[in-house]
Prior knowledge:
Structural class: alpha+beta
Radius of gyration: 28 Å
Distance between the termini: 36 Å
Number of strands: 8
Shape: globular
Mean pLDDT: 81
Strand order of the largest sheet: 2-4-5-7-6
Low-confidence stretches: 340-347, 489-495
Amino acid sequence: MFSQNEKIKNLNELFEERKFQEIVDILSAEEEERQLSFDEYFYLTKSYGRVGKYSNGLIYANKMVELSNEAKDTAKLVRSVNLVAENLIDLNDIKRGIAYCEKVEPLFRKQDSLEFQKLCFKWGMLYYHDEQFEKAYKTYNKITHKDFRKLSLFTNNYALTLMGMKKWNESLEYLKKSIQIDHHNGKNISINLSNMGSVYMNLKQWKQAEIHLDSAVKSLTQNSSLSAKKSLYENYFDLFRQQNKLGEAREVLEHIAKIDKQIFGQKVNEKIHALETASNRESNLTQKVKIIDNQLEVSQRQMLWGTIISLLLIIGLLTALFFFKYRHIKAAHENIIIEQKLLRSQMTPHFIFNSLSVLQGMILNKEDKKAVSYLSKFSKLLRLILENSREKLVPLQDELNAVKHYVDLQNMRNKHQFKYRLTFNDEISSEQILIPPMLIQPFVENAIEHGFKKDFENAEIDVNIHFKNNKLTCIITDNGVGINEDKIKTNDNKKSLATKITTERLKIISKEFKVESDVTVQNRKVFNEKGTLVTLILPYKINKYD
Length: 546
């Protein structure tokens, strides 16, 4: 058996060899058998980030914060919050990342200066992406350690911040430093050269701008990203446009159009891959159902024989034993079937193809900005659905983000848009509340699909969430045509499939979590109002990462 120090040493060697998935596999298996140490959680969190599973990385970073608070170890705590901020950046959760950094700043002591400066790298970039350039500038200037300021990560980001503040000469100085550092380390310098070309354009030094852009093109390699190439050609376009060189500008636009097609194709391929992954998952679930069906059959036979034997020996004991075993397998069977149905309802080909058709129409109508916005929201929704469907519990905030992206997509598709309002009391943070995924969205979808007629105007949907007396309640109201009370009582076949699945899930989750949950659907006509009212009592857990 290895000692704990030997285990950490082996993990460090694997990490330096960039065997990140191997680390994830090892520690995930270990976690099922025992509580991991802080250092093991550190390597697990970093490895999840390296393989692109940032949501998992965020969960384990918060777990490290929780362990540090329990141990009252501030040194470990500041390392942990750095990892939380790192995963929030990777998830492109800019607003939440800024709020988090501002919140944890007081945790750092004088002896934590280096860890605080590491946080400033992430904090400054969050401000930059939010176009708060002055705050980004002040944050980067808090990085005073000489070795940190010599890193290309610092010089690159600092130069971008100076460009955002239109301090062109200073930004040139740091871009030149970045080129020297990256060239020395064998890294590609095309992006820095392109940025220098942009700076020279703003200084009206056209010749220098063209020289640096030409050099950037020569520095491109097969491994250069499409976004980097597009940014470079956009700088070319700005240069020729400002010089009134219309022929050259037109040629550059053709390059940009080709790159846009490649980027679009790349994103479509990513979505197709994600769908194939979801399909494979459903296939695995089907196989599990077959296995459990066989187990049910075996269990039923055992139950029969057990009953016969119990009549001869100890009737009560054996009957109870087989009864509980049967109920456990049946519950697992129901869980997997419900999960299959949920996955199908989330990722129906009808929804995917409709969305892609709408996107194709926008592109053909040359509604470029609208198409980019639609694609961005569509890809974020797909990502949230696929990520959340893998998790048993997700932050309430993630669930609400998925609902918002879904509503935004529907509004972009429909001629008559509807108003969507979300209210949430501030008794507890929506990031701390964990709920099973995809509980709210089906009812919002019902309101849109069934509550409003084709040409319905002044449509409104309100989602009100409040946490009171240890009960999490979500009230969804719309001002649509309302729901037929007789259909509610008779469980009409036209009732939404997603609503049925959600109701079944709530029953199973309530038993598993041993918490209260409920669904009530009412016609607002009984209150002398128009529309439908849905009241959800949601099962939840509190993530006490603070």
